[in-house]
């Protein structure tokens, strides 16, 4: 795996010139990712090298590696590092599997999955974010196919997917996703239930449909495009 901003950290250390962003990535992995039982060496390696600071706006680069969601625009965020790492690990991606990233934003999660040798389709509804994500992934993960369209609709023309990663919060799994999964496919994301703490979930495709199973508590805002439409109350 190689990216234009990365090279051997040991060589940099010997030269006394370790790049600041590389230090930030190594510290993120050692202090945020490994302590929450993310043990897949492929995920750890990808997060050490992928330039997370490139996926945020210029005024947010200073907080790109902090253990928090980083605001982007229109109610959207770059997900907290430990949350996206644990979600990806829960999905247990295997090299060569076809993946759909819903709410791809500027493309960080899609870039991670590409580094794990998955065949990735990124779906984004917001035009501004889609333009940013398409440009970044063309440089950093050129194998990713970026699709602009409604998040609730998925990408049926690219189905079936071995798994779907929803990069944000939902109150329910959109009904279109089940039909776009391969046999025994799975969906992961953050589920919001009224009166309960948001919880990461994993749902596997079965004869009775998708039944989410809680994985861990976490904080992630609802994806505005998948938020329920307000209704009248009497």
Describe the protein in words.
This protein is of the alpha/beta class and 234 residues long. The chain is built from seven helices and nine strands, in the order αααββαβαβαββαβββ. It has helices at 9-15, 20-33, 41-49, 81-91, 108-115, 127-140, 176-179, and strands at 70-71, 77-78, 98-102, 119-124, 145-148, 161-170, 181-191, 199-206, 209-217. β7 (181-191) and β8 (199-206) form a beta hairpin. Residues 1-16 have low confidence and may be disordered. Belongs to the methyltransferase superfamily. L-isoaspartyl/D-aspartyl protein methyltransferase family. This is Protein-L-isoaspartate O-methyltransferase. It holds the Pfam family PCMT. InterPro entries: PCMT, SAM-dependent_MTases_sf.
Succession of helices and strands? HHHEEHEHEHEEHEEE
What is the CA-atom radius of gyration, in angstroms?
Answer: 17 Å
Main sheet properties: 7 strands, mixed
Count of alpha/pi helices: 7
**CATH secondary-structure class of the domain at 69-226:** Alpha Beta
**Roughly what percent helix?**
25-40%
- Silhouette: globular
Tell me the strand percentage band: 15-25%
Unreliable segments of 5+ consecutive residues: 1-16
Task: Specify the CATH architecture of the domain at 69-226.
Answer: 3-Layer(aba) Sandwich
Provide mean pLDDT, rounded. Answer: 90
CATH superfamily of the domain at 69-226: Vaccinia Virus protein VP39
The end-to-end span amounts to 57 Å
- Strands of the widest sheet, in order across it, are 5-4-3-6-7-8-9
The total count of strands amounts to 9
